[in-house]
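Fill in residues.
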């Protein structure tokens, strides 16, 4: 590990600046990003964030994922879009329901294309539901506290951090109303 001194005035006794260790995930991610390996940078930061949640890493992951999306190889999609699924819930007027062990891609596809939603009982436990609801409530409160939404209000991160696509992004903006 190298040791570097800051460019301080003679006689300044501030602490020396040290280079990050080779196994520092943030430094590793910066190197991968600088080399154009955005997906590798994402993988490293995701692993680090799972180990110890960090709002700065979470915000950086959002930006990196956005940048990396345009670098991914494109593959042909379905021949028919949107896909057609037979209605597995023809007698249901409201939201169809299934138990967690009855969930499949076909069941979800049928419910979404024919009814717009699907309730899956037992998929998420009560503690996780409370945690998810708390996170959603904090995100909305953070957005509300930020005023026009263009900047995070003090103390609300990581629950709400504004994000906008980079200049020149070819994707469609998400101009829609949010329903609470």
């Amino acid at each position: 590990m190298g040791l570097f001194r800051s460019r301080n005035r003679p006689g300044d006794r501030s602490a020396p600046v040290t280079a990050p260790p080779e196994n520092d995930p943030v430094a590793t991610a910066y190197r991968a990003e600088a080399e154009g390996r955005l997906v590798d940078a994402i993988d490293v930061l995701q692993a680090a964030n799972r180990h110890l949640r960090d709002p700065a890493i979470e915000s950086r992951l959002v930006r990196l994922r956005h940048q990396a999306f345009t670098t991914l190889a494109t593959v042909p999609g379905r021949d028919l879009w949107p896909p057609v699924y037979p209605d597995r819930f023809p007698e249901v007027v409201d939201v169809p329901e299934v138990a967690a062990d009855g969930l499949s891609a076909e069941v979800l596809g049928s419910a979404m294309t024919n009814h717009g939603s699907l309730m899956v009982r037992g998929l998420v436990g009560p503690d996780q539901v409370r945690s998810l609801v708390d996170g959603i409530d904090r995100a909305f409160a953070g957005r509300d506290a930020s005023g026009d939404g263009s900047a995070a209000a003090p103390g609300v991160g990581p629950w709400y951090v504004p994000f906008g696509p980079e200049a020149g992004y070819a994707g469609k903006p998400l101009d829609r109303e949010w329903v609470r």
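Residues 126-145 form the longest helix (20 residues).
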